[in-house]
């Protein structure tokens, strides 16, 4: 099914500037858990340790100029084992990136490069979970770019940090957004002024 879906997208990619948006979705089948057989291929939910769901991590492709959806460049399907050890037991920080769940961002990007190889350029758009050091080393090149929401600052080749570098850039513009009420965070409806800053910088690709 994945091959069939991506083959359609492959034919539409030629000569286009594309956006490829990634995120993870959970298919929760808890209402049917009484019908599951052993080794059903389902795993733990984000909200429970019982095995009744699986996850999808697709690359949704859009034309960068019209924002028209063209299809999917790859779809990773996986689940979290019910008896999965915790991060400490797995020594998570020392695991190879290929053994981590976060490798899904890199895997989908690399598979998408193959499917979208006849495009002019591809920009991968990801949430803060995609802010992974290894991804900045492995994915970008002359035709492939990353647009990732930052979750942490980074060391730059000039010795400064990413956040400080951006903070020191001049304000290029501003706009106002309306924030809804969120009682869980004790946040009430209000308007917020957003400042836009940008600058060109180089990440230090050597870990220290």
State the separation between the terminal residues, measured CA to CA: 43 Å
By DSSP, the count of extended strands is 9
Give the SSE string.
HEEEEEHHEHEHEE
Give the CATH class of the largest domain.
Answer: Alpha Beta
- What is the helix tally? 5
Fill in the keyword field for this structure.
208 residues, single chain, Transposase Inhibitor Protein From Tn5, Chain A, domain 1, globular, alpha+beta, 7-stranded mixed beta sheet, two-stranded antiparallel sheet
What report would you give on this structure?
This protein has 208 residues and is α+β, with helices and mostly antiparallel strands. The chain is globular. Helix content is 19%, strand content 32%. It has two domains: 2-151, Alpha-Beta Complex (Transposase Inhibitor Protein From Tn5, Chain A, domain 1); 153-208, no CATH class. The longest helix has 13 residues, at 103-115.
Concise description?
This protein has 208 residues and is of the alpha+beta class. 19% of the residues lie in helices and 32% in strands. The strands form 2 sheets. Strands 1, 2, 3, 4, 5, 6 and 7 form a 7-stranded mixed beta sheet that branches. A two-stranded antiparallel ribbon has the order 8-9.
């Amino acid at each position: 099914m994945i091959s069939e879906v991506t083959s359609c997208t492959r034919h539409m990619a030629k000569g286009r500037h594309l956006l490829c948006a990634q995120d993870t979705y959970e298919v929760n089948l808890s209402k049917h858990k009484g019908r599951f057989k052993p080794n059903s291929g389902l795993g733990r939910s984000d909200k429970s340790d019982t095995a009744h769901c699986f996850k999808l991590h697709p690359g949704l492709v859009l034309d960068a100029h019209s924002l028209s959806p063209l299809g999917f460049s790859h779809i990773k399907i996986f689940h979290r084992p019910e008896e999965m050890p915790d991060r400490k037991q797995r020594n998570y920080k020392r695991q190879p990136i290929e053994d981590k769940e976060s490798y899904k961002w890199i895997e989908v990007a690399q598979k998408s490069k193959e499917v979208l190889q006849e495009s002019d350029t591809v920009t991968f758009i990801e949430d803060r979970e995609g802010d992974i050091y290894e991804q900045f080393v492995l994915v970008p090149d002359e035709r492939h770019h990353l647009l990732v929401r930052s979750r942490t600052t980074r060391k730059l080749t000039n010795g400064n940090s990413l956040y400080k570098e951006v903070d020191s850039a001049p304000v290029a513009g501003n706009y106002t957004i309306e924030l809804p009420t969120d009682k869980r965070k004790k946040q009430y409806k209000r308007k917020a002024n957003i400042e836009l800053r940008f600058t060109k910088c180089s990440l230090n690709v050597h870990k220290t």
